[in-house]
Amino acid sequence: MGFDPISIITKIAVQFIVSKVFAKKEAKRFGPGGANQNSGIIANKSSSNDAIPVVYGRRRIGGTRAFVNSTNGSGGSGTNTLNMILILAEGEVGAIKKIFFNDTVIYNGGSTSALGSGGVQITGYADTKYGSTYIAFYPGTDTQTVDTTLQTSIGSGTWDNNRTLTGLAYLALKLPVDPDYNGAVPEITVEFDGKKIRNAASTGSTVTGADQNPADVMLDYLVNSRYGKGLADSDIDLTTFASARNYFDNSGSPKFKINGFLNTDKTMFNNVEEITEMCNAMLIYDKGQYKLKHRKQSESSTFSFTRDTIVGDIDIQLPPKSAKFNKFEVQYGNSANDYNDDVKIVSNGTYLTEDNSTELIGRTDSTLISEEAQASQLATYLMNDSRHQKVISFKAPHSAIDVSAGDIIDVTHTDLGFSSLKFRVLTVTLNEDDTIDFQAQIYESSIQV
Predict the structure, then answer these.
(1) Per-position b or e across 247-256, b if 16+ CB within 10 A of its CB
(2) What global pTM score does this model have?
(3) In this predicted model, what pLDDT tens digit does every residue of 184-221 receive, in sequence order?
(4) CB 96 within 8 A of CB 114
């Protein structure tokens, strides 16, 4: 990543909340937007270079048909067979739960048998309507080897021993040609437990399964070099991640839980914002390390600013009407409906009256939420937060050096009518002359989750 030498000369230290909140919100929420990401992830795709999602918690995924061909049995005689490789996600993932053929469940937690190649063969079917010659599930370990059953069916000249697909979770399928397919390749989707990832509060332990903790997910995304930032542990303040994890867990009754996916073709900033948005958290870059901090109610001020600790004037930025909402819609994949599309809508009559009965609608979609209650929580927060977007900028002397991005401060300034008014610090910039530039957003305790 490049740098600006002029900025290095004039500003020698920076702290900031790692986010593209305003750019992302404008792109996602103003206007009707594009196709919902949740509907797209359930559809099968045919591609050799499509982006592969990272699945966390539990989710239903359509996958990408990376290989499809048909053969006519051993030695060119026998039953016609459809051979298919369906890439599901970045690995290593947890257990398979369901398999759907054209929206019909053919496997619902039945029996499996281990394969020497590192996968499991699906042997117990709840519904055999579509029939099957062979289905195997591979979790995406770095040690899995080629599926020999599929190799024999396709032919080793085409599917050789190098086709291990290490690091990728996938299905290997041999299917009989079936009239129920109506002459097309069947639509196959899979519900499974997502990535095995580190426990942010317990060194060396890993977790998988439904309801992943957002702190674990953020840590995995930051340290993974295959699809994430590839940071070292020394680049991360792990103490703050452990603290956030405990807060999210809420003594075993989670405030926030992730069952969804991240798109690897999205930017890192967008995926970081996807995580922090759903759990009302901040990723902060401070003194060369990344910290995870959660927003909450009744936070205490760490520093009081007055005219004596402010150099010059305070600049105030108020949000435009287009950034304020009295109604909000969140699209998500609802687990109660096999992770198909759903929309949660919340509204506020008081806000509507303040806006002269003009409906102002905000919209977003979340790829990490699968429950209506969480979608409602997110929609309500985003609507409320849009009403409290006042941002101030000011310069302070070196005495405020201990104030960090993410902290709550209070400001008293009689000319502006501020009396211990609380703000959250967004950015802190230490200038060469030892003054400090601050940017902060109004803090409204009552709306925090």
Answers:
(1) bbbeeeebbb
(2) 0.90
(3) 788 999 999 999 999 999 988 999 999 999 999 999 99
(4) no
